[in-house]
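Case study B.
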Amino acid sequence: MARPAVLPYTKPVRRRERNGELSERALGLILLAPMVLMLLLVVGYPLIDSLWLSLHRANLASPEQGQPFIYLGNYIHAFGQPAFWYAIQRTLYFTVISVAIELGLGLLFAVLLNERFRGNLGARLAMILPWALLTVSNGVLWAWILNPTYGIFNATLVNLGVLQAPKSWLSDTFWTMNMIILADVWKTVPNMTLLLLAGLQPISADLYEAADVDGATRWQKFTGITLPLLRPVILVAVALRTIGAFRVFDIIYVLTGNGGPADSTKVISFYDYDQAFHYLFFGYGAAISWLITAFMLVLIVLYTRLLRSEVEV
Amino acid sequence: MFQDNERGKIRRRSILRTVSRAGRVALLGCILVACGGTAATPTTVPATAAPTATAAAAAPTATTATSGAATATTAATSAPTVASAATATTEATSAPVAGDQVVNMLWTDTSNLRQPLIADFTKATGIKVNQVQVQYNELLDKINTSVQGGGDVDVVEMDTIWTAQFASAGWIDDLSTQIDDPLKKDIPASALGAVTYQGKIYGMPWYNSAKHLFYNAKLLKDAGFSSPPTTLDEFTQQAQATTKPGHQWGSVWGWKQAEGLVCDWVAIMFTNKDAQILDENGKAVFNTHGGTEALQWMVDMLYKYKAADPASLEYTEADVQKAFQTGTYALTYNWEGDLPADNDPTQSKAAPNVRVALLPGSKDVRSSSVNGSEGWAILKQAKHKEAAWKLLQYMASPAWQKKSAIIAGDYPILSSLYSDPDLQKQVQDFSVYGEQFKYLAIRPQVPGYAQKSDIIQKHLHEALLGKVSPKDAMDAAAAEVNNASNAP
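Model:
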């Protein structure tokens, strides 16, 4: 009789423990229980509560109005507000440009730092330093750099002759957002670089040698070997950064205080913050948070789809 | 763990390998922990958690030890003060409830000018004061979160524009019966009005406050002016004459998109005797009653006369003070309390030339300024109401009011102190202060003011940036204010 190609599957029998010791499975559950409990309390309960709140009108500055149930009233109100859509637009601008720059610079630095050269360790340390700053400190730092009266940015540009007089960058509706992107990118590129550098490690040197033998140029090696093999890591990194950039708040709060010159830097988190914490429209604020979550879910689903495709070298 | 060679000795290389492995794991762990707060968590937690966490983190860390070097933004911070701010907040939230020998207060004395007064209070009554301090632009948010979150704060600093909101929401105690008549008679109407809502007094006035004209007497004299401007036209003239492109500017303003912008606009607007912001029904009428003209003057100062520093558009009042102290600006509007620092040679290059005068008016109005009086309110949820009331009484007493005028430049709320010879001698230009109170405009005291003010600020800023004409900006602002419902 021929040996079967695949052994028949037999369900593992659960051994009864003899001396009262916990089975592995039970032990696993017990060890996980505290964390699950904490997650339920800290994440699960606020989630459900926030969803429930978003279905009510809850204006905490007028408690005499009570908190009536208004179904999807808050969501419909959000869609009707031009300020809401403007905030989404500003957020998308920030996200797209900031992630694009971070990806480009991150790839460049990762590929560079992957080479062997003297001072490689020093270079890696220098690269990672901006990430160690608190976002708030980073914001204040850049606010001082960009200050028209005593900031070094203006001083340098004026001395080089690029500007005639110091420019007030943070009161220009076009430049403020771009300066915020600059400050945020400066701080977050190390994050991206690190991820991409880690993704470069498993790529075997044999592939590059084989490409050399075939006479490939550096650019061809980069686009033919590095990029395709790096694709899963790039997608993960971009997905994480997109979600982070969509939620940006603190750097904008520090640099502009309230959404910038003429609301040009009022991203969706800021709009939500205003509605919930300034005007105390908590029901509306909760609805906006869920809308933000919905936007991000769409993005995540998109990325997951992209990730599923096979990679061939 | 350690590999032995044939003779059983532990090899150096294997030790190094193990240690480096452990080190790398530790480093990775530290990095993961450090970056755990940024983008690395794609959970579906709604974003209200994020602003709450960052707002709570930003507010306590946004204090400064002294206003010496740090300005730029409203959230300046530095490493040593982060630690002290954290201790201040933890102190405030964990105060013992032992028999009203302690009181928790929330205010904006971030420059620590008034600490000697608190020390005096503790010496006089034996009550310990736990303070939480934030910058003014964060105060409202901090009060909101304290009330909603059930924090341990007893007394809060309350700006005149918030009295209506706090009172109508039921957050603060009615103190009408507790303030006795002699005290009420001694307080000018502007200070008492700042803490009154619908006829009831909801707080203890803390100081009178108004914007004043600060001028650099030396710069004006060099340009040939022996006295400061008394009308807006004279202001324009003097500012133009003292503007030397590249060296100095005639005027600097705090026109960042914040409450300070509305204050300046109101002060300028009320040089018109028919000015009005809201009518009796709460509808916006500022676009037809003086608001547009005021905005036009502000825009002209920037673009037509070029007598105002364009950087004004990103400055708050604190930045304006810093700028004025460089000695390269001739005129500005700012709150009282700046004078001592402006004329301190260790801090200011403009010393000792800075003087104070009445804000300019027009041919109909002698002077026009805006009321910024603040008071103190006791929260309904306060746990130490007795101690809180004692603190409020002390703050309204001549002991505090007089000393505060000298060390912090706060205006007394007690009319009797304005004829005090000591104060007139020790506080520079003291007589000017008392005079300005006769010419104060009051911002609307309605609940929902915060939202209306934000709308007006946005449109004012758009016009100041030259994006829309002043008339269009004011009309759009009025329309939006009238549409702003109280709840979605």
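The radius of gyration of chain B is 26 Å. The remaining cases will be described in the next quarterly update.
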